[in-house]
Amino acid sequence: MQSSERTQSHTKVESKDNMERSRKTDQSTVRQAGLRSGAIGYMPGLDGLRTLAVFAVIAYHFNLTWAQGGLLGVSLFFVLSGYLITGILLAQWEKSGTIDLKDFWLRRARRLLPAFFAMLAGVMSWIMLFAPERLAAMKNEALASVFYSSNWYLIFHQVSYFERFGPPSPLGHLWSLAVEEQFYLFWPLLLGLGLRFLAKRKWIIGVTVAIALISITAMALIYTPGDDPSRVYYGTDTRAFALLVGAVLAMVMHGDRMAANLTEKKRLALDVIGSMGLLVILLMFLKTNQYQTFLYPGGLLLFSAASACVIVALTHPSSYLSKLFSWRPLRWLGECSYGIYLWHYPVTVLTNPVVNTESTEPSHMFWQIAVTVILAALSRYLIEEPIRYGQRKLFLRQMQGLQRWRGPLALSAKMSAGILLIFLILLMSANESTQVSAKDMAKSGKIEMQVQMVDTQSPEEQARTPETDNNTSIGNRVDIGDIRVGMAAENEPAASDSDKNNGPASADQGSEISGEGITIIGDSLMIDVVPLLEERLPGIVIDAKISRQMHQAPDVISELRKKNKLGKTVILQLGTNGSFTEKQLLKTLDSLEGAEMIILMNTRVPRPWETVVNEMLTKVSEPYQNIKLVDWYSASSGHNEYFRSDGVHLNQAGIKAYADIIIKALM
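Above: the chain's sequence. Below: its structure in C-alpha cell form.
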C-alpha cells in the first residue's frame, strides 16, 4: 500500500515537472516569436510561407517572364495576415472577454511603423541627393503612404499600376500595406461587435463569409475585360475578401487545435490538402498574369482558398509541409519578409536603368536582392526590434548569433548606427544611369502640356487645325507628331550619312513605295512617326491617338470605312498602353474583312504587359495567310539610343528606325 502511494506521489511529481517544463518551453517559444501571452502560438512554417510570398513578388517586379503571376504573392500575404490577426484577436477575447483596441493598435504600430519610416526616410533622402526634380511629384504620394491611404490615392488620381510611363515611383508598392492597415483599423471593431452581439461563432463566420462574397462580387462587377484593372487591383473593397478568407480560417480552427501526435491517416490528409493548395499557388505564379480575365471574376478567390489550405497544413508541426517550410534559412528570411518587401521595390526602381533594351543580367538582380536583404536585416535588428520590444534582455535574445552587439552600447546608439548604415548602402547603390535629369523632366512636362492642349481642343478649334494632306485622316494628331519631332530635332545631332544608310530599310527604298491604299491605326507611338511616314509614303492614311487601346480599334475601323479611307493594306500598331484579350484582337481582325494585307506591329514597352501583348500577337497571327507580324521588339533590342527617357516613345533616331521597319514590311 505504501509502495503504491509512493508510486502515485512520484508520478504526480513527474507530471508536475513535465507540465512546468512544457509551460517554460511554451513561454520560450512565445518569446522567440515575439508574441505576448494570450496570442496564438508560434508556427515556424508560416515564416517559410512568407518567404515564398515575398520572393514571388520580387520575381514579378524583376519582370521575369516565367513569374508573371508573382504579383499574387500579395494575395498570399493578405490571407496570412487575416488568419494571424484574427487569431490574435480571438485569443485576447477568450482571455479577457474583450478586445483591447488601444493595445492592439499600439502593437501594430510598433511592429510596422519603425521599418516603414526608416525606408521612407532613406528613399526620400536618396531622391533629394540624386533626383531632386522628382521630389514635387513624389510629395503627395509620400504623404498618402504615411497615412496608409496609398491605394485610394492611386485610384482617385487615376495612376495606373499597369498603364503609366515615366520613371516608376519607388513608393508604388505601398498600396498593399495601405490595404492591410485599413483592415487592421476596421476589422477589430467589426469582430468585437460580432463577438459581443452574436452568441454563436457560426453566425460570426456566416457574416464574415457574406462580406467576403460581397467583396469578390464587387471585383467581378467592376472589372471590365481588356481595360486597365487597377481599380479592382488597388481597392480595399475589392481585395478585402483575401483577408477575410484568412479570418474565416482562424475562426474555424481557433479552439480546435489538433492533437500533438497525429495518426498517420490524419497526417496524410493534412499533407494532401496542403500539397494541393501549394500546387495551385505555384501554378498560378507560373501560368497567370494580371491581364487574364479569369483572375478577377474568381481566380483570386481560388488562389486565396489554396493559400488557406497551405496555412492549415503549416499550422501543425507534424505535417511534412510544416517541416519543409520550417527550414531555418526560410524562417529567417520570413522573419525579415516585411523589411524585404519594403526595401525591394525602391532598390529595384532606383538602381535600374531608365532605358534598357537589353535583358537584365542575373548578376544585377542578385546584387539587388543582396542589398535588399542587407537593408531589411539592418532595419530589423537595429531599428524595428529595439522599438518593438523595448526591454534590453528580450532584444538581446533576438540577436542570438550577433554576439558583438551584446556590449554596453545604448539601444539609441545602435538605432542611429543602423540608420547610418542604411543610408550609406543607399548611397553606394546610386547608379547614374537611373537618373532622369531636370532638363529631361522639364522637356517631358513641356511636351505633355502641349499634347494635352492639342488633344483637348474644342470642335471649333479642331476645325481650324489644318491637315497636311487631304488623304490623311489623323486630324489634329499631326500637330502632336510635329511637337515631338521638333523637340527631338532641337536636342539631338543630325544623322550622319552612315546613319542614313543603316537600319531595316533605306530612304531610297522607301521612295519607291506609294502610300495610296495604305492605312495605319496606332497610338501615341505612331504619332511620333507620322511626319516621316507622310514624307516617304505620300497618300498614306494615318489615324493615331494618345492612349488608344485595342478594344477601340473596331470603332475606328468602322469610321474609316464609312469615310472610304480604309485601304487594302492595314497596319495595326496598338499595345503600347496595355494588353488586350484574344477575343478583342480577333474582333479587330474580323472587322478588317476585305483587307488584302494586315501588318501587326509588336511592342517594346518596359511594363508588365509587354510580354503579354507580344505573345498574343504571335499566337493569333500565325493561322492567317494575309497577316504579317513585324518584330519591333527584336529590331530595337540593344538600341537604347532610339528611345526617350520613358523607354517607350521615340527620339529622332528611333523615329527613323521605326519608319524604316514599316517600309521594309510593305516592300
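The chain has 29 helices and five strands.
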